[in-house]
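Here is one record:
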Amino acid sequence: MAVTIRLFAILREAVGKDGFDIHIDEPVPVERLFEQIVAEHPALERYKSMITFAVNGDYATGQDLVKDGDEVALIPPISGG
């Protein structure tokens, strides 16, 4: 099963690309998916406490399930004005 990961701003810079696919064996909570993402892209670990997640365009909590075909956006804090 594949999940599409989208990265923005500083997260995109940390990984060096704006997205990638990650494979899961079964539906998993967002927080567990993030652990798998960090295992493949350790540079994201330092942003863990700042990231907001969205699944298929809707904000998600760490307990929301991600399944095959979903798109998960990792959204960094936004500042400016």
Remarks:
- The chain has a mean pLDDT of 94.
